């Protein structure tokens, strides 16, 4: 196990955000890194609750840049979620909802990291590129993509 | 059972028609398909447009072989379960996706022992039959379901970093991550 800070630290509340499908599966693979923190999840599929119980799961409408109305609804819902959870840290594995949560969470001073999907082997996703202007840290899971885009590389979900 | 899955975003008739053809020649093997929204009917497949996480996990657990588009959810779930997975990447020139990133993803994932990548329907059918013979292949042992130690460390360090920022005072601060 990696080293934790040796002196006692205050609790950290983490909001972990992912859309469905591969984004959620990749977030699940990061769960050991959340040990010791108070974790809230936000995702699009209520059936995901079973996988992380008893951690609280907040649901927002799935949206992308081609679904304008749903994007607005997702923004409103994620605003409510962020204000309720008041996270210290927001972690997202995408996609659009993760970027939105990061934008909103910055306004309340949370630190934010966006981890682009391992599917993006050649370039960053649109959400990751937007997140580069909002998040404290944007990671690509491919060293060559990171080197080309200004994102950081810190390993991958595989 | 064979499980075919194409994600929920876009239809993928080329994959499902090929699997339907295979199923018509192998009536003794049930084939369940998660089809997304499609107007096409597949007479030899048990079709569901969408599945929730639970149902999806059940299908993966029961499947002897998984046939999927090159979406990361399909790929990761299959390899975590130690199942052989056949990937047919979506092609932009056939209107199957907005771009060709699935071909790049499939090319990168082809190094995994569980993964076979196919480009056309005939190869897909051959690959299903071949994968069915791999049931006891030790190379298919279930893989770890967690990220690499390096990425877990990076996320853990980010969470516990002392670089806290008070509300509305930190705009423009760039990340300070312990190496």
Automatic annotation (TrEMBL), chain A:
UniProt keyword Membrane present: yes
Topological relation to the membrane, as annotated: Single-pass membrane protein
Location(s) in or outside the cell: Endoplasmic reticulum membrane
Pfam families linked: Alg14
One GO BP: dolichol-linked oligosaccharide biosynthetic process
Primary location: endoplasmic reticulum
Top-level taxonomic group: Bacteria
An annotated Gene Ontology molecular function: N-acetylglucosaminyldiphosphodolichol N-acetylglucosaminyltransferase activity
Keyword list, A-Z: Endoplasmic reticulum, Membrane, Transferase, Transmembrane, Transmembrane helix
Name assigned to this protein: UDP-N-acetylglucosamine--LPS N-acetylglucosamine transferase
Source species: Fertoeibacter niger
Upper lineage: Bacteria, Pseudomonadati, Pseudomonadota, Alphaproteobacteria, Rhodobacterales
Automatic annotation (TrEMBL), chain B:
Pfam annotation, one family: Glyco_tran_28_C
GO molecular function: hexosyltransferase activity
Protein name from the UniProt record: Glycosyl transferase family 28
UniProt keywords, alphabetically: Transferase
Gene3D superfamilies, A to Z: Glycogen Phosphorylase B
InterPro entries: Glyco_trans_28_C
Domain Glycosyl transferase family 28 C-terminal, first and last residues per copy: 1-140
Domain of life according to the entry: Bacteria
